[in-house]
Design goal:
The protein is an alpha+beta fold. The protein has five helices and six strands, in the order ββββββααααα.
């Protein structure tokens, strides 16, 4: 996901990041590297084109620099689209492992799914986020997997 624009908001002590039409905040306290202080504030911040606009770089008055990837911003904000993509990614990796270990031939898996070989390979492509969770659950069911979703309160 590409960052459209961004700026540092010193009053809020956070970066304001525009991603996919949403304005997300990323607090200075969450910075993994160099953190600004009252004596060493942020002097410059920009969308980093070297990261394919998927991150931003900031520079402090002292000259120290740090970089933040858009994934960190999305994860901090618990973006639903990002969480869905993460779930799809994890289910896809599990399906890949299960197919590799399964005694079933791919043709049999395709027959049981009632789909085409092309569609199976799309399901197994971890970079494809246009598939649905339903399709992956059907595939895992064919592979004799019991998928359970656990919802629990966040730990402190």
């Amino acid at each position: 996901m590409k960052i459209r624009s961004m700026k540092a908001n010193n009053r809020r002590k956070a970066f304001e990041v525009m991603v996919a039409g949403k304005r997300l905040l990323f607090p200075f306290a969450q910075l993994p590297e160099v953190r600004p202080t009252a004596d060493d504030p942020i002097a410059n911040v920009y969308v980093d084109r070297e990261l394919g606009a998927e991150g931003f770089t900031y520079a402090l008055k002292s000259g120290q620099e740090g970089t933040v990837h858009v994934e960190d911003v999305l994860e901090y904000n618990q973006d639903p689209d990002h969480l869905r993509d993460l779930l799809l990614y994890r289910l896809t990796l599990e399906a890949q492992k299960r197919i590799a270990a399964s005694p079933l031939a791919k043709r049999e898996i395709i027959r049981r799914l009632g789909t085409s070989p092309t569609q199976l390979y799309r399901l197994l492509d971890q970079t494809n986020y246009r598939k649905s969770v339903d399709q992956l659950l059907r595939l895992l069911q064919v592979l004799d997997c019991d998928v359970q979703l656990v919802v629990r309160a966040k730990s402190a």
